[in-house]
């Protein structure tokens, strides 16, 4: 809860903060998922996303990156 807005309804608090309802945010997200992906945006293994000389194999401290599941 944001101090000073306790007395307002949910809709009024959202309007005051310039936010959308959860339902509208979900609808917006589903709509964005349906838009076409620009050509070249789905590059294999993220090639070209980092400047040359930037290694994707280490974290910068010499430890190797490992692929695995998040828990």
Detailed description of the structure:
This protein is mainly alpha-helical. The chain has a domain at 1-34. 30% of the residues lie in helices and 0% in strands. The chain contains 2 helices and no strands. The longest helix is centred in the middle third of the chain and has 13 residues, at 22-34. The radius of gyration is 21 Å and the shape is extended. The model has no long low-confidence stretch (mean pLDDT 75).
Write the layout of secondary structure elements.
Layout: H1 10-17, H2 22-34
H/E element order: HH
What is the beta-strand fraction? under 5%
Main sheet record = none
How would you sum up the global shape?
extended
Number of E-type strands: 0
**Which segments are poorly predicted (pLDDT under 50) over 5 or more consecutive residues?**
none
From the N-terminal CA to the C-terminal CA, the straight-line distance is: 30 Å
List keywords for this structure.
mainly alpha; extended; 71 residues; 2 helices; single chain
